[in-house]
Fold this protein.
Amino acid sequence: MPQAKSDPLRELARSHGIELSYRDMSGARREASLESVLLVLRALGEPVSRPRDAGAVLAERRRRLELRPIEPVHIAWDGRIPPIAFRLPSRRTTREVHLRIAFEGGEVEETVEKPVGIGARRALARVLVRRRLPPGYHRVSVEVGSFRMETLVIASPLRAPSPRERAWGVFLPLHALRSSRSAGAGSFGDLAVLAEWAVARGAASVGVLPLLAAFLDEPFEPSPYTPVSRIFWNELHLDPDLLEEARTSDELRAVRRSREFRRELEQLRALPHVDHRRQMALLRKLLEPAARAFHEKAPPGRRERFEAFLAETPRAADYARFRAACEKKGSTWESWPARARDGSLSARDYDEGAFRYHQYVQWAAAEQLARASSVGASASGGGTKRPLYLDFPLGVHRGGYDVWRWRSSFVLDVSGGCPPDPVFTRGQDWGFPPLHPERLRDAGYEYLIEALRAHFRHAGLLRIDHAMGLERLYWVPRGLDGRSGVYVRYPREELCAVLVLEASRAGAAVVGEDLGTVPLAVRRAMKRHGLHRMHVTQLEARPDPRVALPAAEPDMAASLNTHDMPPFAGFWRGLDIEDRKELGLIDARSAAEERAIREDLKRSLGLFLRDRPFRNVREALLACLEAMARGPAWLLGVNLEDLWGEEEPQNLPGTGLERPNWTRKARLSLEEIRESRAVGRILHRISRWRLQPENPEHRGG
């Protein structure tokens, strides 16, 4: 952004955490455009149409900040809080401060303290909280005469739980986990079976993609990274056989026996890809009668479990009303009348049957997930209480429940995205509205806390998608493309405090997805707070036989690839290069250059790990897995699809209609995975390699 005549605009942008320039992946500096800065400021709520508006708006913002008596949030790492600064009305002084601490558990403690310093300007003062605060969210009030101010104190351990033992786990998207019991996509019941099988072979974790609620009718958005909510679950994965109503509902049994149902079921099972819309429609034919049967004649014990769920998840009824209203109105909240759009629904806005259905399926999903997370938990290695390794996505669908209910905590006129890079030269617009840094903070992080708690209720491990979002996020203004975004900063330490506190309460470890160009401050913060980084072979390998596979650090989670990359066999054969060439993402010359680099890389890996080129893909796979398994990384994640030589990716970033992302089924069924001697032998080797100390003569990993 040009500096001439725009100093107030630059200052206004900086006060909102807008970065006016940044370095791209090549190291070149990029400047934010004037148009982008103005649009982002307006999205944040500042009335700036032209640069000359900035002076008055900046003066008003400074006035508001100076008049704010106390910061809305403070952190007490390990219970110790620095002196709390506060402002009194101009020219007022005080010799004593009444301090009131309302603890999260309901207890209240009051003391009278002397201020430790009063400045001349607007009576800026500080007060000490002398006691060490227990973990939790506490309200601290500062009173001077009739003047009272309050702040939220997040008392969090400095570091998240960190397993001491070296461990390994498996990964497979649940939609890909087909079985003889499922209708095409895997179920929570299948997940429990997979977890039990993996833990019995020494695995500490079972990783999946996000399992969150999705729009699978109108609108249709099956991507696990654009959920309706980060608090509620996707009923597509419910296992009807695990529902008690499957045995008691005559209506459900009649539907299941019908020729039409059985024909549709067989067709869905035969498809190579999951048809989310058709499968959800078929499953609902079973879930609706199950919900009716439950509400009509549930036995007392089962009814009590349902009521307990509603008490523990008070927003479940609100969510169910929202989903029922979406179905009745045939649209998302953005096109609803003002009253409903602004969060107030009446009985006329939805059908009671749909409301009861959505309550029921959320309860059933929570129970089935709890069962999957408890399977093998006592035998799970690596120090985790539960084997499920869940994925916490960066964003949510703009028409979904979370944005509707916490509207002020989101910025609707921009989208999260990514700046241009060598692959995506126009940048990326991911389509979801980012969180508003200041309003999220003013609301005491209520939304984030609820979303994290929903995950930690079942997860022994949690992956944080795009961990750089703890520090900053690239915003793309509506109407512009990914080349015209700007970075906006977030209150990193406060976000980390919430994350670490919730992880600690659950006894769960946290892995941050920190791949690509990530500011050093983010990785330092991750290390300081016990958030594990990632080490991915496809990104770390080098075409140099001396350092072809750099070693991971001990606190890292290592893997060959991720869900956004080709499986090992596809990478080894260069199929990803051909795919990007076919899509027009690279030209023929660039593809030839990449193929040459890939061949050098493969040769170097062979020389580095075996002192000779690899003879085939399987030999290369086993050597790389052994190097990582014997290496120092705390966790080794094994993509099960690599073990039988899958070549197609689950997702190709930057493509929508061009590729069937998030739909491909695994080549082997759940039954075949469990019975496969080849898969079992590899996992046995990995378990043995992990338990053995590092071989001084062994390189890599």
User: Anything to note?
Assistant: The radius of gyration is 27 Å. Confidence is low (pLDDT under 50) at residues 378-384. Residues 380 and 551 are 26 Å apart (CA to CA). The first strand starts at residue 18 and ends at 19.
